[in-house]
Structures are given as C-alpha cells and as structure tokens.
Design brief:
The protein has about 325 residues and is an alpha/beta fold. It contains twelve helices and twelve strands. The chain has one domain: Rossmann fold (3-Layer(aba) Sandwich), CATH 3.40.50.720. The radius of gyration is 19 Å and the shape is globular.
C-alpha cells in the first residue's frame, strides 16, 4: 500500500521538485495551495525532467495559518513535507514572516500529530547554523549563537526548528534539512530565479563573499530518500559545492549570454546600497532587494559540508553547473 503524502509550498522551488520526484515514484501526493497559486510549474517540471507520471497530484485549498484547513488536508496522510515559508527584507512584513515561518510550522506540526502522521520533513536553512571554528567548513555541529545578531528570517527558521525538535520529543518522527543557496528550474520571479533575472538584465556589481550552492532536485531527492529511510530525528546540511559569488554570477551570465558583473562592491558601496533601498522603501513602499544583514553576508566567506549526509546514505550531489544549466534551460523553454 502506497503512503499518502502531503506537501506544503508545492508551487515553490523545493516543493514543486518534491512533488515531481514523488509522482515519478508513483506515490499518491496531496499538495496544499493557496487560492491564487499557479500549479502549472509542477507539470512543467515533470515535462522538463522527462519524468513518467505514475501518480496524480491532488491539489487542496489551504493555508498553514489556517489550522482547520490543515486538518482536512492531512486526512489519511502519513508523511508530510513542509516547505512553505516566507522570505522578505520588507520591515513592514516582519510580523507576517514570523507568523508564516514560526506559527505556520507549529500549526503543521500540531495538526500532523493530531492526524497521526508518521514522519515529518522540514526545510530549514543554513541561516540557522553557527559559524565555523578554525576555518573548517560549517557542519551540523556548528551551533547557533544566541549572542550573535541574526536577521528576522534566520530567527524565524531557527525557532521553527526548535518546534520540530519539540514535536520529535512528543513522538513524531522528523527530518530537518538545511539547504545552502538553492538553484534550479522554477519561477523566475521568486527565490533564486530573481537572481538569474537580475544577471540576465545586466548585473553590474559583484561582492567578495562566497557561499554554498545546491540543486533544487538534489534537495528534493535527498528529502525523499531520508523520508523513505529508517533515519529519524536528524538534521542534514544539503550542499553541493562552495564558490565565490563572483564565480557564480559569471557562470549564470555565461549561460544566459549576458554581460558578467564587472564592478566590485566593497563595504562602502554595500552600506550605501542597503541604506538607499531602505530609504526607497520608506518613500515608495517598494520591496527592498538588499538589507543591512544581506549586505554583510554578501561580503563574507561561508563554506558548508554535507559530509554527514554522504557518509550516512552515500548520496551524490549534482554539480552546480548542472543546476545553473537546468534553471536557464527551463526559463527559456517555459517562460517562467
């Protein structure tokens, strides 16, 4: 008998990849969607990857902030993939961000326990990890430091992780994944798709920082593998490779036949940029594209390792170049 699965955030970058992976395995999938969400992205992904659709997707209306809609959506579900989240630099939306990322996760966990769900996967972020020690890559042992200054998004995901751990102590089997910067086919107006579009339109500036990258398909595949395994109540970093932001932007520009960034933005330019964005927001209400925290991150070198996952499962990550190629090819083919 196939296990019924519920996916939240099914039209997002990770959620859509999870659904595509599950229907290819013949797993019955129910996906939560808000009223105006466009589900075509999932069908396009299935077509793009050439996946044989061996099961159907049941889209049901609901919202992680509406507990009673979750109770209906969870009927019969034994596995839950919770990917729904919010990312924004808009100061006016900080409360909404906390509500969706923290309270929304609490609602999903409590409703899952009440519904008798057997296993729960939560997509967190590398933002919840502490800094490395002695220059070693950041791994799952790098603990969040309460005395460090964290942005609202990082705080909301960290608190959500604490709730997942609380639920695990109450008997719910859980998996937490901490992906690095996720790239791959998806909506060009959201997530990493926005970065690709900025490069396509001529991104002039680059920074000295570096970070980790991972294919959205690898995030989905790793989560499905972990959920179908005996592994429980563990967290795993998902990272394919680390590289300077300049190298990443250059690779994207090359694939999109665009001009590579050519002006190095140091501390002065970045500080001016986030202050300008904040002033513009105050005057016009336009969503900021950079914040003080993201400006600091952009000039810092971060390195991550997925050694724990690889040693536990033998998982093999796709190259970053493949993720970039897939993202560009998907945009060109489907116009997303």
């Amino acid at each position: 008998m196939k296990i019924m699965v519920l996916v939240t955030g099914g039209t997002g970058l990770v959620g859509a990849h999870i659904i595509a992976g599950l229907v290819g395995k013949g797993v019955p999938v129910r996906a939560l969607k808000r009223e105006n969400s466009k589900t075509q992205i999932v069908d396009d992904l299935i077509d793009f990857y050439g996946i044989e659709k061996r099961s159907e997707v049941e889209w049901v209306p609901g919202d992680v902030m509406d507990y009673y809609s979750l109770k209906d959506a969870l009927k019969g579900a034994k596995h839950v993939y919770h990917t729904a989240a919010m990312v924004t630099f808009n100061p006016n939306l900080e409360k909404t961000l906390r509500d969706v990322n923290e309270k929304g996760t609490i609602n999903m966990l409590n409703a899952s326990i009440e519904a008798g769900v057997e296993k729960f996967a939560f997509v967190s972020s590398i933002a919840t990890l502490g800094n490395s020690v002695n220059g070693y890559p950041i791994d799952e042992t790098c603990i969040w430091q309460a005395d460090e200054k964290h942005n609202v998004y990082a705080e909301s995901k960290f608190r959500a992780e604490m709730e997942v751990k609380r639920a695990s102590m109450e008997g719910l089997k859980t998996i937490i994944v901490n992906p690095s910067f996720i790239i791959g086919p998806g909506d060009s107006t959201r997530s990493s798709g926005q970065v690709f579009m900025r490069v396509k339109n001529g991104l002039a500036f680059y920074t000295s920082g570096s970070t980790g990258y991972v294919h959205a398909r690898d995030v989905a595949d790793a989560m499905i593998m972990l959920m179908e395994s005996d592994i429980e109540n563990e967290r795993f970093i998902l990272n394919s490779d680390n590289m300077p932001l300049k190298d990443f932007f250059d690779a994207v520009a090359k694939k999109m036949h665009s001009k590579t960034p050519y002006i190095k933005a140091g501390k002065f330019i970045l500080d001016f940029a986030w202050r300008f964005e904040y002033l513009k927001f105050k005057l016009t209400g336009t969503e900021p594209v950079i914040s003080r925290e993201s400006a600091k991150i952009a000039r810092t070198d971060y390195s991550y390792t997925s050694k724990k996952l690889v040693e536990a499962t033998g998982f093999k990550f796709r190259p970053v170049d493949e993720a970039i190629s897939d993202a560009v090819a998907f945009m060109e083919k489907y116009g997303h």
